[in-house]
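Quarterly update from the structural biology core.
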Amino acid sequence: MKLNGCNVLITGASAGIGREFARQLAGRARSMILIARREEQLIELNHELQQQHKNLRVHIRKVDLSNLNQLKELVESLDREQIDVDLLINNAGLGDAGRFATSDPTRNEEMILVNVLTLTSLTRHLLPQMIAKGHGGILNVSSSAGFLPIPGDAVYAATKAYVTSFSEALRAELRGTGVSVCALCPGPVRTEFQEVASRPGRRVKPGPGPEFLQVAVEQVVRDALTGLEADRPLVIPGFAMKLAMFLTRLMPMPIVRLLFRLSPGRG
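Predicted structure, tokenized:
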């Protein structure tokens, strides 16, 4: 995947990893479609990018990707306006921290819609045109949480397991077409994600995880784009996280279950 001169669509672009993708690609892309629920943040980001990169064409779309009608309208508008996309970054994602039995059913549905259905639908819609042109890229933002079932993050981890598995299968199907597929599986990243995933009335932890595993959002995006350009199937930013995930994936499930029993679950 050649990033210079690409036409990129980024979901969840208003903050965190999505916003950083926009910033790092702004000097290389020809055009951008930035999608998020929060229009004010999108407008601010658009202004920032246009100030620094005068030749960059930016389209912003206020879309709630957990709303199927709005997702349908987005897809139809891309066709109607004949907007070319040769790099799709499926970054939008929702989380929820706590026991499944006390979870909000609506929140669970929204997580599945955004993390799984929207990602799948946008990929299915945009992929045929990439194949027809003989080049393109799909970068799916998964998570290291997808490598294991995680008590206290049951639905979120399961949706990310889907994203990683889907990306691997799609990559195999597209071999020889000129379309690259890469799954980004970061560990703890300091963004607003933890705060948004926290349930009402619960104290937000000061950080997203152990400090030695945390990776700056700038490095996460830099590693992801490097991995996509190098046609890597999977990117896990940070040496400590790579090592931790390597050991985790070698661990037999009976040992994992034992560790789960010894660890206190989230309330």
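The mean pLDDT is 89.
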